[in-house]
Amino acid sequence: MVLSLFLGIFFTLGAFAQQTALRGHVKDVQGEPVIGANILAKGTTNGTITDADGNFNLLLADGQNVIVVSFIGYVPQEKNVKGLSEVTVTLQEESEQLDEVVVVGYGSMKQKNITGNRFHSQGCG
Prior knowledge:
Elements: H1 2-16, E1 19-28, E2 38-41, E3 47-49, E4 55-61, E5 66-70, E6 77-80, E7 86-91, H2 95-100
């Protein structure tokens, strides 16, 4: 009896929760698709990523009206999607961030050729 009452309430409440399907496309300023961009309903963990063509599908719960689109090297963008079933987002490059990234994968360098701070430590006692 208690189980059937619980299930009845659960399914009744679930019927009131509306979900909206949102389709979209993420591209850069040159019109190229951004593969693997993150799309999140703002303030939640509900999200997805774009496919090889820059397309995505996302189910939004009632009240989730803003999506956040982000990808490494691009400025994150918030978009109000209330009442929309399809959206296109164009991401701008974050050139300042790209200029600051330096990766050294392998090799050796002499200490006198390395720029930046040097730290020497001597043993205690």
